[in-house]
Amino acid sequence: MTKKRLNILLYAIILVIGITVFCMCNELQVQNSKILPYVVTSLMMGLAALGIVQELFWKNDAQEERQEDLEENTNTASSWRSSEFFWLLPLAALAAGCIVFGFYVASFLFVAAYIRLNGGSIKEAAIFAICTPVVLYVLFYVLLGLELATGTLWELIF
Amino acid sequence: MMQNILSGFALCFDPTVLFWMLFGAAIGLIVGILPGLGTLLGMALSLPFIFKMQPYEALPFLVALSATGFTGGSITAVLLGVPGESANIVTTFDGYPMTQKGQGARAIGAALTSSLVGGILAVFFGVCMMFIIMPLVMLVTSREMVFIILAGLSFICLLGKGAKIKSLISGCLGMLFSCVGLVLVTGEARFTFDNPYLFDGLSLVPVTLGLFAIPPLLELATQGGDGTISSGKAKISIRDTFEGVRDVVRNKWLCLKSSFIGYFFGVMPGVGAQAAVFVAYGHAKSISSHPETFGTGNVQGVIAPESCNNAKESGSWLTTLALGVPGSATGAVGLGALVLLGIMPGPSMFTDHLDLTVCVFGSLAMANVLGFFMCFPLVSYLARIAVIPGRIIVPLVLVIIIVGAYATRGLVADIYILLAFGLIGLLLRRFNFNSGSMLLGFLLGDLFETYLFISLQAHGWTFFMSTGPMVILACTIAFLIIPSLSKKIKSRRSA
Hints:
The complex is a heterodimer of chains A (158) and B (495).
Chain A: H1 3-25, H2 31-58, H3 62-75, H4 88-101, H5 103-117, H6 122-143, H7 152-157
Helix pairs in contact in A: 1-2, 4-5, 5-6
Chain B: H1 2-12, H2 15-33, H3 38-50, H4 55-79, H5 89-100, H6 104-139, H7 142-154, H8 156-159, H9 164-178, E1 181-182, E2 189-190, H10 204-221, H11 238-250, H12 252-267, H13 274-287, H14 300-323, H15 329-340, H16 354-375, H17 379-382, H18 390-407, H19 413-430, H20 435-459, H21 467-494
């Protein structure tokens, strides 16, 4: 997809979001609660429309655009591991681990697994995996007095 | 009066006061460095412990904690792109790219020095202008506040690297996110989808960490286990750090102006001092001869926000002490501390407790010096974080971010918000929208609505037809237009 088409699509999505939120505002009971969302969504829709007009009629620098597209295509990495979006999965796994197993256990498992899977030695993984929950305990529990959740699994067991 | 001022300054050098100041500065640095915790939490957690302390011990402790928190936050903002404090977000815009270029030590040197200069200059402003600025602050009403916030919001269009439209849309989206929750002025639940968690609105910490901390870390993760933040040299000498100090000297006027912006926003009660750093950054960009280099590692983009965020603390403490109306969230905790210590803030702070007031300002200046000297010798070691392999940095910082997001309120739902905003942050980056604009909209949306509502109730739709709002509006337009206009005139003349 060319950059121009992508931008038009993005502005169209913003326009749809704006219209949806604008319609959602009608459900609010108190008039004063609607002022800010109305103002903001109107502005957003206006800007999105302006963006579409700009992309369609004002930007005519085809040469520059082709160059940008070319650069983008050369920069596009081939492997799925090189997409930032893929790395949201381990983050989501860590979050799920924290909720289920608690912060201390999840951080131990996550650090160990991450280091090992990314080419670290067993010794390196073990050292950092043990140190992380210890540091968390000292910093958050001992020094700051904040209790970190032990996880739903442990709460069910004990 | 003179005797009170002198005894106030003498108090700052009392060994017990110095000890508490040092202790406060150390804690401030630690909570500042840890993403998600921040000065506010550090101060709030300290409140139960200051109960039995004397006011001249407790206040320097808290003041030192609040002053150095922002200094500590700048270190992670520069080295990891993870803002320790929400006020350090703007520092990541240019600080982190500098680290990626192998100029991490220089960026930290500039950040620490500008923090020091900003902190000290603001104390100077505070002491000199105490009796001029206070009557002006008393004149500010809700309708002036609407326009002061609008001034902050207008800098959205200066934050974007490329398309202004995308920047403005990001700001609008941020304001829409601020609409979530119970509407303060009407009590109605808005965009909450009957979810009790959303009644309080979206929490600032997970939103900030999601938008600013997660994308650079995930980008580092894509480089594989051996990828590093910096592509530059691994060995960093103290000379690099001093280069940052020299940068501040070279940009002394920018530092002075940014400090004043910080002080001014800090003094304004309830404006939301986070806006100050965006304004300072926008101003630096608008007056720069190379605005296109902002966001790619321009040292001016580090100096402006760092001098500003330390300066606003001084302004905030001044308003808290003089009016009992905090200028920022830390000021609000400071107000709580004053009440706990049995001191009623107000004009009496400048008559009956003048020595204590002077001691607070002296402590602010000294805390900035302490923060600088505690961090400066460590810079060349800290900057080596940038060459630690990604397989170690990424999991450790991700764990700290998740725990930081959770620990602020102890709610699991904050982790979901963190993940959602992490995704939004990635999408914004991918499609060249602006996270900074979104956050500014998010921060100021609530305040804007509250003051707009009060103004409308009090003065009707013609609330802006008075001298104060008109003057602020004219200043804002001038602030935005004059730099670009003068640049155009200069370029025409040179052509």
